[in-house]
Amino acid sequence: MAQLSRARGLVLRTQDHAETDRIAVLLTPNFGRLDLLAKGARRLDRASGAALDVLNLVDVIFYRRSGLALLRDVDLAGTFPNVRGDLKRLSCALAGLQWALALVPRWMADPNSYRNTLEFLSALERGGPPERLRIGYILRILSATGHQPHLDGCVQCGAQRDLTWSPARGGFLCTGCGGTGEVLAPKLVRTFQGMARLPLPALGRLQVEEPILKKMDELLHLFREVQLAR
Questions:
Q1: Shared-domain flag, residues 34 and 124
Q2: By residue range, what is the domain housing residue 17?
Q3: Which of 50, 55, 145, 166 has an alpha carbon 20 to 30 Å from 220's alpha carbon atom?
Q4: Which of 160, 157, 183 is nearest to 169 (CA)?
Q5: Residue 96, domain CATH
Q6: Could you tell me the CA-to-CA distances from 150 to 19, 83, 155 in Å, in that order?
Q7: pLDDT tens for each residue of 120-153
Q8: Are residues 73 and 90 in the same domain?
Q9: Between these two residues, 60 and 47, which has the higher pLDDT value?
Q10: What helix, strand, coil percent values describe the chain, rounded to 5?
């Protein structure tokens, strides 16, 4: 018999299923990524359809079973109206949620990823700088899911100079230890280190130029591709 469970979660993604159903993917502290089948959620008279919008915080009751969990009931617990009402903030929020979708495993408790994601969205809601918050969030969810890049100098010898980016080796790698490709600018290295150390709400005080943020984003996407391919 399927086990009845409860959870609070953040809706990461939804997709239509069959004629009237919907699949909702939630990020929860106790179950990690939770994929729910909401029967009839696309009918106009079903409140669950509105509650299960992306970026909504919801309380759900569901049946645990093989395959998709089956939603029994859902209540809306919170929204992020300032994020939804600003295109740049919304775009950054949705881009951040893609990292949670890719990194958080199903049915494995992950309170750190859940907490970091809510902190990221709350900081966006309060008016924090979107791109800096997104990069800071990426660094934190990589760490929470066991993929933290090594940013404290060369992963091999600890050197702070002539550093390259080596996703296969786990982060910074100096040229003396076999690092190849572009040598990273010292300012980029320091920015990586600072953004990894500072609390997310404090990133608003960190001055970062747009080209550096763009480069960090590029390097982190490459890092994720290599890490997830293992």
A1: no
A2: 3-78
A3: 55
A4: 157
A5: 1.20.1440.120
A6: 47, 31, 6
A7: 999 999 999 999 999 999 999 999 999 999 999 9
A8: no
A9: 60
A10: 40, 25, 35
